[in-house]
Write a structure and sequence with these properties.
The protein has about 180 residues and is α+β, with helices and mostly antiparallel strands. It has one domain (about 5-180): Aminopeptidase. The chain is about 30% helix and about 35% strand. The chain has helices at about 5-10, 30-35, 50-70, 115-130, 145-155, and strands at about 15, 20-25, 75-80, 85-95, 100-105, 135-140, 160-165, 170-175. The strands form two sheets. Strands 1-2-3-4-5 form a five-stranded antiparallel sheet, with helices on both faces. The relative contact order is 0.13.
Length: about 180
């Protein structure tokens, strides 16, 4: 990925929804991302909050995913004012020895309960089906994370099984492309 001013000042817009724009993460998003990843409320279902060093590792992984697969976690911003509200996108995960495309999402707590996660997750699900040709996508969610579970369910997903993912219990939510009705 080029570090030139053109790319830095013009991140690639991947998706747009009624209220949101999903675009590639860039290094200039560091402060916003750190604020989100260092918030104990946002990160309560993760092993820990992330400091500056771990946030940089997060950014590096996302940029590498773009280079390797042309997808990853994207910045979600409001169309109305460009405000950073969170991240949502697609991750390639190994679940019980099988490569799966995950619809993943994480939003700043100030933007919870406004439907942004559902709106962005649906757009990412549809992108996986229409642009990547995926026949199925998953979301990996800790059992106690009721808000994320509700987003997955509004995204047409149902619990398929429980697994251990990165040392933690996770529910595997799944939806098949044939199971998604047009118009949702």
């Amino acid at each position: 990925m080029s570090k030139g001013n053109l790319v830095t000042n013009s991140p690639s817009i991947i998706l747009e929804t009624e209220r949101l724009r999903l675009r590639e993460l860039q290094q200039s998003d560091f402060a916003e991302l750190l604020a989100m990843l260092n918030d104990p409320l946002v990160m309560r279902y993760y092993p820990s909050t992330l400091d500056e060093s771990a946030t940089q590792v997060w950014i590096d992984r996302v940029l590498q995913s773009y280079a390797d697969r042309q997808y990853g976690l994207w910045v979600v911003e409001r169309k109305s004012n460009g405000e950073f509200v969170g991240q949502c996108g697609l991750l390639l995960q190994q679940v019980d020895g099988v490569a799966e495309i995950e619809v993943a999402y994480l939003f700043k707590s100030a933007h919870w309960h406004q439907g942004y996660a559902t709106e962005a997750a649906r757009a990412c699900r549809d992108y996986a089906f229409s642009k990547l040709g995926a026949s199925t996508v998953i979301s990996l969610i800790r059992p106690a994370n009721l808000p994320s579970r509700a987003v997955a369910e509004r995204n047409g997903m149902t619990v398929e099984k429980t697994t251990i993912f990165r040392g933690l219990e996770a529910l595997v939510y799944r939806v098949r492309s044939a199971g998604v009705e047009s118009g949702r």
